[in-house]
């Protein structure tokens, strides 16, 4: 059998904004696909696109490693870039700082932030929605939990973009596409260090920063680990949640039947969110390295090989989901998508982002008829590698 030729150009805008046809070919013709010299610095990689192999790579920590960067300035002590036992220790601390109790107590505060943002939107004739809402909400919430004052929100946005760029560079993006990102993440690190210093010896305010400082004071966490943990929360929580919020509101404004149904049955919002995460996974792919030689679907993958683990394709695998390209909040196995990953690195922010999205969507139902998409500023998709979502969308406020 000759191997199929499927072009995977990570920098190609078409692959970033409409990857679905390529995913179909990958799943059907080459479930383990070898791309020689596919990253900007000429590394080979293998693409896994079916549900079963994607789940395997995420869950089997013995054979698949998350430590993508092993040297150089991007080898940071970040959760996503570490394996057991270091990952287990850091993750335990992340879970402590970010536990379900904390998330459960946030409801009223989150609702207050959403109400303020909606009031600000309704007071204008038109808004750029990503700026006005989808970026503002996760940054205010995560920033607030980290003790970052609102007047630093412009900096926080810049820092968040810089940490995202560092992930993209680690994943193979040319660093020249994000000039200045390293200086920005160093600046953010220094600022978080100062915030933590100012909290020392004070009572724990039971926010994330308070928990991180408490663990640092107890000698369980170094300063560098504390700062990188804060980076991880800001970066991992911002762009992903913003993609979910922007895409969800776009669907509500363009699909009348769906909007009517959810307005009548707001308790189905949870299912709407899960189905959105399945069909338009905000994180489209993750990276892993093999810890040993592995054979999958007859392809020999050598030890140390780089893998692109495509959640966005797994979530549309017809072997797992019936009619996978159809958006259906009544489908069976709704929660079995891999949008938040799986296994030891499963997203610790899942509960928080579900809370933000559910509170946000439910708050928009009563005012959907006041909002419409601005035909002069239609939705534009992001072109960040490995993520899918709306980068810009004009909305008109009808009176
Ligand atoms: C819709 C929103 C979100 C999506 C789709 C999402 C997706 C993911 C995925 C797929 C992973 C797995 C990474 C891997 O296996 O390598 C992950 C990990 C992570 N997420 Fe999220 N995430 C979201 C929101 C958040 C939020 C709100 C936060 C925090 C404020 C957060 C913090 C993290 C962190 C720290 C990790 C690393 C965990 C580890 O490596 O152990 N995420 N996320």
From TrEMBL:
Keyword annotations for this protein, in alphabetical order, are:
Heme, Iron, Metal-binding, Monooxygenase, Oxidoreductase
PROSITE patterns listed in its UniProt record = CYTOCHROME_P450
Entry's Gene Ontology molecular function annotations = heme binding; iron ion binding; monooxygenase activity; oxidoreductase activity, acting on paired donors, with incorporation or reduction of molecular oxygen
> Which branch of life, at top level?
Bacteria
The record's section on Gene3D superfamilies has: Cytochrome P450
Output the Pfam families linked to this UniProt entry.
p450
Query: Per its UniProt record, what PANTHER family does this chain match?
Result: CYTOCHROME P450 YJIB-RELATED, P450, PUTATIVE (EUROFUNG)-RELATED
Task: Please state which protein family the record places this protein in.
Answer: Belongs to the cytochrome P450 family.
Q: What is this protein called?
A: Cytochrome P450
